[in-house]
Design a protein that fits this description.
Length: 94
């Protein structure tokens, strides 16, 4: 299923986007109800997934010869909530 760089990248992008959205749940838990542990766990997972996203973005850039513009848009999408989902629909599919 994940036999090429693009399919691996899309899977990691999906997981990274989901972890970003989970902050919408864990931030109120931390700052309203004083439960910091869920935010810590989601933050660690999100950090690891973000690093994997950047590594796989670099491999896709090299292997599939993506343009600098397309790669920059993929990077910017990782910084915006729901950005990776939108980018998957508009940019990542070939």
């Amino acid at each position: 299923m994940f036999n090429n760089a693009l399919s691996r990248f899309r899977a990691i992008a999906f997981m990274e986007g989901c972890s970003y959205i989970l902050f919408g749940i864990t931030m109120p838990l931390k700052y309203v109800w004083g439960l910091p542990k869920p935010n810590y766990i989601v933050g660690m997972c999100h950090g690891v997934l973000f690093i994997l996203y950047m590594i796989t973005l670099l491999t896709v850039f090299i292997e599939l010869k993506w343009s600098l513009k397309k790669t920059a848009l993929a990077f910017i999408a990782s910084l915006i909530p729901f950005g990776t989902f939108y980018a998957d629909k508009k940019i990542f599919r070939q």
